[in-house]
């Protein structure tokens, strides 16, 4: 790693050990070391590194390539609280003048679409990252692009870093919306430096992250942001078969007194039609009514289209995959099977302990140990991170998803569960909610008050020598 970093630096890339570099840069480094770099497809990389491709993506991969057509990109907006996610989503929603329906009545169904230069973009309208986490934890990874909102007066904050970690783990490209540039105390250059330090190097500095200055409040820069989204999506393979196998993800769902269960579904492949029999999680039903976010009745909805549907028996969970089945009998069998599976799973929660990670490594299932680090103060993080990075010479790659000051929270556990990571705490505690979630999700939280004990444990784990816990 040191050699690689040296070459990167002589080429003007101030990289740290966990940083992603683009293919061209990697190819130059490889070349200087006497190797030739070959480009793998995203699917190949995912298959190798995580062993699991989201079901919807697998379905699309199994479609006849000739049947695949471009679909609108699905965008999710993440960022620290109060940095302007909600305001930005509203500004984008109202920017939709091209369709000539500006000012039209829209309803919040958890997702909406806008048109820019005759191209549709789907936005997941669930500010906060709870839905995104839930989707990732279930391997759905529904979004194609993340727009990361960072307030230009406040800069990179804990939830900004968390969002970056999520997007990186899901391998979803990030566009930064540098918000609140109207404020007199905004400091874009400072924030850009912070972003670069977090692995998002602005394209104006020869990095590959687009950073778009906006003011969500004054509705400035919105066009540029939409433009950037289309640019990034054009460079990606965002396609599906509108006539293929029908499936997608549940965005949100609830019960309403008069209407029963209403659910927002994002169609990801095929076309969903009135009367279809669907199963989502352990909920099933026939689609009795279907609307878009403008409350217009629909008969049919194709890929990347968010729709509100009625007719499900129970409330499915956000992030559940839904699929269409031929008849009631088939659907019922799937639901029964899932209910039994869920009961069995409850009995044996898979654990992400150090011991088991090593077993998975030996079984060839993983080559990476993901860690989430919490410490009492910023000052204790640096020595721990640098010692952990030294361990990276072993065969198992050590990736530090996040290193932050503060007690172990529910959010940390959620991120760890989604990324099969282990939580390490130094001089901190884990709050009750975090411990409860860790137990339910099988996430291991290890707390230390001596640095070398912590690094020693990780070192032992990497060698497969760790004594079992308790
Ligand atoms: P969220 O928590 O990320 O969803 O943030 P909100 O959208 O609720 O915004 C938080 C606060 O910042 C609100 O008071 C907004 O009015 C304000 N705000 C959002 N965008 C801007 C902006 O572009 N400029 C200024 N000056 N204030 C903004």
TrEMBL record:
<dbReference type="GO" id="GO:0005829">
    <property type="term" value="C:cytosol"/>
</dbReference>
<dbReference type="GO" id="GO:0003924">
    <property type="term" value="F:GTPase activity"/>
</dbReference>
<keyword id="KW-0547">Nucleotide-binding</keyword>
<dbReference type="GO" id="GO:0005525">
    <property type="term" value="F:GTP binding"/>
</dbReference>
<protein>
    <recommendedName>
        <fullName>Translation initiation factor IF-2</fullName>
    </recommendedName>
</protein>
<feature type="domain" description="Tr-type G">
    <location>
        <begin position="70"/>
        <end position="237"/>
    </location>
</feature>
<dbReference type="GO" id="GO:0003743">
    <property type="term" value="F:translation initiation factor activity"/>
</dbReference>
<comment type="similarity">
    <text>Belongs to the TRAFAC class translation factor GTPase superfamily. Classic translation factor GTPase family. IF-2 subfamily.</text>
</comment>
<keyword id="KW-0396">Initiation factor</keyword>
<keyword id="KW-0342">GTP-binding</keyword>
<feature type="region of interest" description="G-domain">
    <location>
        <begin position="73"/>
        <end position="221"/>
    </location>
</feature>
<feature type="binding site">
    <location>
        <begin position="125"/>
        <end position="129"/>
    </location>
    <ligand>
        <name>GTP</name>
    </ligand>
</feature>
<feature type="binding site">
    <location>
        <begin position="179"/>
        <end position="182"/>
    </location>
    <ligand>
        <name>GTP</name>
    </ligand>
</feature>
<keyword id="KW-0648">Protein biosynthesis</keyword>
<feature type="binding site">
    <location>
        <begin position="79"/>
        <end position="86"/>
    </location>
    <ligand>
        <name>GTP</name>
    </ligand>
</feature>
<keyword id="KW-0963">Cytoplasm</keyword>
<comment type="function">
    <text>One of the essential components for the initiation of protein synthesis. Protects formylmethionyl-tRNA from spontaneous hydrolysis and promotes its binding to the 30S ribosomal subunits. Also involved in the hydrolysis of GTP during the formation of the 70S ribosomal complex.</text>
</comment>
């Amino acid at each position: 790693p040191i050699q690689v970093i040296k070459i990167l630096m002589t080429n003007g890339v101030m990289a740290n050990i966990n940083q992603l570099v683009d293919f061209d840069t990697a190819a130059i480094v490889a070349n200087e070391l006497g190797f030739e770099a070959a480009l793998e497809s995203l699917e190949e990389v995912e298959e190798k590194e995580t062993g699991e491709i989201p079901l919807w993506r697998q379905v699309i991969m199994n479609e006849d390539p000739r049947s695949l057509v471009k679909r609108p990109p699905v965008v999710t907006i993440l960022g620290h609280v109060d940095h302007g996610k909600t305001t930005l989503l509203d500004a984008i929603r109202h920017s939709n003048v091209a369709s000539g329906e500006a000012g039209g009545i829209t309803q919040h169904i958890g997702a909406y679409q806008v048109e820019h230069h005759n191209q549709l973009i789907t936005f997941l309208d669930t500010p906060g990252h709870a839905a995104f986490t839930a989707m990732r934890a279930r391997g759905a990874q529904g979004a194609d692009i993340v727009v990361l909102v960072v307030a230009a007066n406040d800069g990179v904050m804990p939830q900004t870093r968390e969002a970056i970690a999520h997007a990186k783990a899901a391998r979803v490209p990030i566009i930064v919306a540098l918000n609140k540039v109207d404020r007199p105390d905004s400091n874009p250059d400072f924030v850009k430096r912070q972003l670069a330090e977090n692995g998002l190097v602005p394209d104006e500095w020869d990095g590959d992250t687009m950073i778009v200055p906006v003011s969500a409040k004054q509705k400035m820069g919105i066009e540029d942001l939409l433009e950037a989204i289309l640019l990034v999506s054009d460079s990606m393979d965002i396609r599906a078969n509108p006539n293929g196998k029908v499936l997608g993800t549940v965005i949100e769902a609830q019960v309403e007194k008069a209407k029963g269960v209403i659910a927002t579904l994002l169609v990801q492949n095929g076309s969903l039609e009135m009367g279809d029999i669907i199963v989502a999680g352990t909920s099933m039903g026939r689609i009795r009514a279907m609307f878009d976010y403008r409350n217009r009745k629909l008969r049919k909805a194709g890929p990347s289209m968010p729709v509100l549907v009625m007719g499900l028996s129970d409330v499915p969970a956000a992030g559940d995959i839904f699929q269409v089945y031929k008849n009631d009998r088939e659907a019922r069998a799937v639901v029964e099977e899932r209910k039994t599976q869920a009961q069995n799973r409850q009995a044996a929660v898979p654990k992400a302990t150090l011991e088991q990670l090593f077993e998975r490594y030996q079984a060839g299932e993983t080559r990476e140990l993901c860690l989430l680090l919490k410490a009492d103060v910023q000052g204790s993080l640096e020595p721990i991170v640098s010692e952990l990075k030294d361990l990276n010479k072993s065969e198992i790659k050590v990736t530090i998803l996040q290193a932050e000051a503060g007690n172990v929270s529910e959010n940390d556990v959620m991120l760890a569960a989604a990324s099969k990571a282990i939580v390490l705490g130094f001089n901190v505690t884990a709050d009750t909610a975090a411990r409860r979630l860790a137990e339910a999700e099988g996430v291991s939280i290890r707390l230390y008050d001596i640095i070398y004990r912590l690094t020693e444990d990780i070192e032992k784990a990497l060698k497969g020598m760790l004594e079992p816990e308790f």
